[in-house]
Amino acid sequence: MADKDSSSGSNIENPDQNSDENAVSSYKASIENLVQRFQNSNPLDQKHKFWETQPVGQFTDVGNSGLPEGPIELPTPLSEVKQEPYNLPSLYEWTTCDMGSDEICDEVYVLLRNNYVKDDDNMFRFNYSRSFFSGLCALLGILAVGMLEFVLRLRGSWLLSLVVFR
């Protein structure tokens, strides 16, 4: 009988050992999956229709030692920069931002909260508290004294809301 009990006991699988093996197997599979996804995401093989038209370094330039060091485009002299704002359709207007104003800060806050996303997966949204953003606006208001012409808003006059903030 002892033989029967001992042999039947050896046929029973240890549940802890089985779960450990499953965890290791799952871990290996996830690592292999991650490596495969990384290898398939080689940016050199992908087309970047927008970025290929922009004055930025290109993936095809990687490793090309014949390219000169320095800026891609030389800075434009201030005398050649357009001094007047571009003409906008009649429903839009350029306005300056007084970042010390609570009303302007609220407009910018709503625009960023509803539209600003840091990544393509739409996971990292602008989600600061109003009090944090108000403090930031107050700081920008102090820093922007004498430089208000560089902080611009594009307003949709028919909406009476902020469309662009720079």
Q: What share of residues are in beta strands?
A: 5-15%
Unreliably modeled segments? 4-10, 146-150
| CATH homology group of the domain at 88-165 | Gcn5-related N-acetyltransferase (GNAT)
Q: In angstroms, what separates the terminal alpha carbons?
A: 86 Å
CATH domain fold name of the domain at 88-165:
Aminopeptidase
Lateral arrangement of strands in the main beta sheet: 1-2-3
Using the alpha-carbon principal axes, give the shape: flat
Features:
single chain; 166 residues; mainly alpha; Aminopeptidase; 3 strands
How would you portray this structure in words?
With 166 residues, the protein is mainly alpha-helical. It contains four helices and three strands; from the N terminus they run H-H-E-H-H-E-E. It has a three-stranded antiparallel beta sheet with strand order 1-2-3. The longest helix is centred in the N-terminal third of the chain and has 26 residues, at 15-40. The radius of gyration is 29 Å and the shape is flat. Residues 4-10 and 146-150 have low confidence and may be disordered.
